[in-house]
Design brief:
The chain has 325 residues and is an alpha+beta fold. The chain contains eight helices and 20 strands. Helix content is 26%, strand content 30%. The mean pLDDT is 96.
Length: 325
């Protein structure tokens, strides 16, 4: 067995046993596609050893993040105890996932997952990730607005008063829990139509990859109105155009809390990188927002200064008054 294969097998067991809390008497559904088939099969094989029945289905890879799987797959997702989705495009922001969760199913989504990311991020000390994630979630309680600035030109303010705060630790052991595998972030949906300012995406952008030339996005009343930069900015405009006006809506603000995560160009891992924030555009129904478009695109900002109201939480990407060690 190659070292890569061994890493994949070990990471698959950690994902199902330690993160999803898969039990002997439970049933598991793995939803994969032709692009992530190798990872889907590894999870399925691990599942067969850990639970009563593991079922593997392969769908055609979706065109964009947030596109629904076939209806009959969505129905299957409601009829098991645990669903894990290693797919090229994200199934996180879909009705299929939301409806499964309503039935009490635990769902772990792994959009764009690679063997390297599985091996690295799933080996993290989850107590450390949980500690920081809950620390930030508590700091967010009662906050009215979030402001982010960077030396590269980001300066945006987002209203968040009374919006649902979601600590995503990557440990999903309770009925109806759902999130990414691996994880490590705190996020919420800013109020629609309320965000204003400039976001300079300099880390990576979902659907685009690692950024060579920063993408400058002018946000007016909650929408990305002007987008400037190089080739990558045009790619982002093209992605927005595919899904219509609401694809440009500010959907999410998040902070990464996984100290093992690295900037790779794959947003599943990138948005978890400690010391970064991400702002997403598009669908935010999953996090208590109102935007129902068939697209969700995260953009990563490095070395941010972050204020929760008047309190400085992060300075140039470093947590203020908190060490993860």
């Amino acid at each position: 067995m190659s070292n890569t294969q061994k890493q994949l097998e070990e990471a698959s067991v950690i994902a199902l046993r330690d993160c999803m809390g898969l039990q002997k008497e439970e049933t598991l559904l793995i939803v994969t596609d032709e692009i992530k088939r190798e990872i889907g099969i590894a999870l399925h094989e691990a599942g067969k050893e850990l639970c009563k029945e593991s079922v593997l289905v392969e769908i055609q890879s979706r065109e964009v993040n947030g596109q629904e799987p076939p209806v009959y797959i969505a129905e299957m997702m409601k009829k098991v105890d645990v669903v894990v989705c290693p797919t090229a495009k994200s199934l996180t922001h879909t009705d299929a996932r939301r409806n499964a969760v309503k039935e009490g199913v635990r769902v772990g989504t792994m959009p764009g997952i690679t063997i390297d990311t599985m091996a690295r991020c799933l080996s993290a000390d989850y107590d450390k990730i949980i500690g920081l994630t809950h620390h930030l979630a508590q700091k967010l309680e009662g906050v009215s607005s979030i402001r982010v600035t960077t030396e590269k030109g980001t300066d945006i303010t987002m209203p968040v008063k009374d919006r649902k705060i979601i600590p995503s630790t990557g440990v999903l052991k309770n009925k109806g829990e759902s999130g990414n595998l691996p994880s490590g972030e705190v996020f919420l949906a800013p109020w629609e139509d309320g965000s204003n300012g400039t976001v300079v995406i300099d880390g990576s952008m979902a659907g685009v990859g690692v950024i060579a030339e920063p993408i400058e996005i002018e946000v007016v009343n909650g929408y990305a109105e002007q987008i400037k930069g190089g080739i990558e900015s045009q790619k982002l405009i093209d992605l927005f155009e595919k899904s219509g006006r609401d694809a440009r809506a500010v959907a999410e603000f998040g902070i990464g809390t996984n100290y093992k995560a690295q900037l790779t160009g794959m947003i599943l891992e990138d948005e978890k990188v400690l010391g970064t924030i991400h702002i997403a555009f598009g669908n935010n129904l999953t996090m208590g927002g109102k935007i129902a478009v068939n697209s969700h695109l995260d953009g990563l900002v490095t070395e941010p200064n972050v204020w929760f109201d008047d309190e400085l939480i992060m300075e140039k990407g470093k947590m203020v008054g908190y060490s993860i060690e």
